[in-house]
Amino acid sequence: MKISDFGVEQWMNKYETKAKYNLGETCVSPFSLHTLLETVGVDETQFMTKLLNKRLTYGAIEGATELKKEIAQLYRPALTPGEIVTEHGAIGANNLVLNTVVEPGDEVVVVTPTYQQLQSIPEALGATVKLLQLRPANHYLPAVQELKSLVNAKTKLIILNNPDNPSGALMMADELRPIIDVARSVNAYVLSDEVYRHLTQTDTYSPSIIDLYEKGISTSSFSKVFSLAGLRLGWIATHDQGLMKQLLAHRDYATISCGVLDEMVGTLALQHREEILKRNRQIIRQNLTILEKWVNSEPHISWLKPQAGTTTLLHYDFPLASTEFCDRLMKEHQTLLVPGSCFDIEGTVRIGYAFESEHLKAGLAQVSDFLKELEN
Ligand SMILES: Cc1ncc(COP(=O)(O)O)c(C=O)c1O
Question: Measured between alpha carbons, how far is residue 223 from residues 99, 199, 228, 316 in Å?
Answer without folding.
Answer: 22, 12, 5, 29
